[in-house]
Automatic annotation (TrEMBL):
<dbReference type="InterPro" id="IPR019811">
    <property type="entry name" value="HDH_CS"/>
</dbReference>
<dbReference type="InterPro" id="IPR002912">
    <property type="entry name" value="ACT_dom"/>
</dbReference>
<comment type="pathway">
    <text>Amino-acid biosynthesis; L-methionine biosynthesis via de novo pathway; L-homoserine from L-aspartate: step 3/3.</text>
</comment>
<dbReference type="InterPro" id="IPR016204">
    <property type="entry name" value="HDH"/>
</dbReference>
<keyword id="KW-0560">Oxidoreductase</keyword>
<dbReference type="InterPro" id="IPR001342">
    <property type="entry name" value="HDH_cat"/>
</dbReference>
<dbReference type="InterPro" id="IPR036291">
    <property type="entry name" value="NAD(P)-bd_dom_sf"/>
</dbReference>
<comment type="function">
    <text>Catalyzes the conversion of L-aspartate-beta-semialdehyde (L-Asa) to L-homoserine (L-Hse), the third step in the biosynthesis of threonine and methionine from aspartate.</text>
</comment>
<dbReference type="Pfam" id="PF00742">
    <property type="entry name" value="Homoserine_dh"/>
</dbReference>
<keyword id="KW-0915">Sodium</keyword>
<dbReference type="Pfam" id="PF01842">
    <property type="entry name" value="ACT"/>
</dbReference>
<keyword id="KW-0521">NADP</keyword>
<dbReference type="Pfam" id="PF03447">
    <property type="entry name" value="NAD_binding_3"/>
</dbReference>
<feature type="domain" description="ACT">
    <location>
        <begin position="351"/>
        <end position="424"/>
    </location>
</feature>
<protein>
    <recommendedName>
        <fullName>Homoserine dehydrogenase</fullName>
        <ecNumber>1.1.1.3</ecNumber>
    </recommendedName>
</protein>
<keyword id="KW-0791">Threonine biosynthesis</keyword>
<dbReference type="InterPro" id="IPR045865">
    <property type="entry name" value="ACT-like_dom_sf"/>
</dbReference>
Amino acid sequence: MAMKVALLGCGVVGAEVVRLLNEQSNELASRIGTPLEIGGIAVRRLGRSRGTGLDPELFTTDAMGLVTRDDIDLVVEVIGGIEPARSLILAAIKSGKSVVTANKALLAEDGATIHAAAREAGVDVYYEASVAGAIPLLRPLRDSLAGDTVHRVMGIVNGTTNFILDRMDTLGAGFAESLEEAQALGYAEADPTADVEGFDAAAKAAILARLAFHTQGVTAADVHREGITEVTAGDIASAKAMGCVVKLLAICQRSADGASVGVRVHPVMLPREHPLATVNEAYNAVFVEAESAGRLMFYGAGAGGAPTASAVLGDLVAVARNRRVSAAAPEGAHDTGLPVHPMGDTITRYHVALDVADRPGVLARVAEIFANNGVSIKNVRQEGFGDDAQLVLVSHQAPDAALATTVEQLHALDMVRSVASVMRVEAFGGDS
């Protein structure tokens, strides 16, 4: 007997899910051991041409009625947002349906509630498509590395910002110009705020941290977030001078004592020899460092209808197999309860560019402020003379709070005309 699938949403991703289900129906049936059949598709408005070739009778505006129907076995949610997605998913779970979702915003805000409901009902919730599109990342973190200790997950998880920064680096384009090109190519929305201000990446970082460190309470609100709108051509040039490239990274890391985790999203200067530095255009990549497995790299298309639908179908096959043998594996039974420590406790490095008066004693006074805050200087150089003088400093590793206080005090120096740029620098290969 075929398993019936309810699809919530039939936009770019939903239509691709329908196409793949139809085109690969025989192959999917052989992998699962039983056919998959679309039992209904919930949409906001009927009558629109969706190019699916499906019987119009399959479409409905009654999403709640669809997910609670007795003949529905599995639910795929690709409508996005918090509501009504949350209510529909919880209703489906309560009705005994396993769920596949691509909803990063919902999982980052209220994943704990959804997973608790799934555990109680004994059903699956899979969500590979919520982070990094087609890249098989979340299940390796959850399953393949379950016997290992993950120390750090660091990645490019937003293709729009990576495209913009890549254009600024390779072509010398400005932020506004690069954003406009991204919009013209369909990489960025008309309102790009979620991407360029880091909200999208922060939601994904919360999901990654929860899986990597088995701590269920991490939400998007716990993620320190900075976007790329303040990245300048000067920042790009400074990064090049240091042998670095600027990337917007999601970074999830255990503290040195293992008692807490840090979760952050912000631009960084990344050494060009780091594997993530070579990720160009709108691609995504995630770099994982684990105790026994060592360094692992996951790379591929991070967005788009077909790549996202591919991840959805992979999850759909997994939950269908589990349901066929009555072997759901709800997430979250083990929770380390590790707290998220404040950004100020994070150990990092700063690159600071100061517009300064070109007179004796400037460097000594600046160095004194660094020293007073317990921050040592790794290297320093002066660019320009007279009114164009700029002092560029890179610190050794220190708590972010101490570095931030240092910058705040530099602002107050009368010999510092302005703090032209502040950006964190990520180490690689043991550099501190």
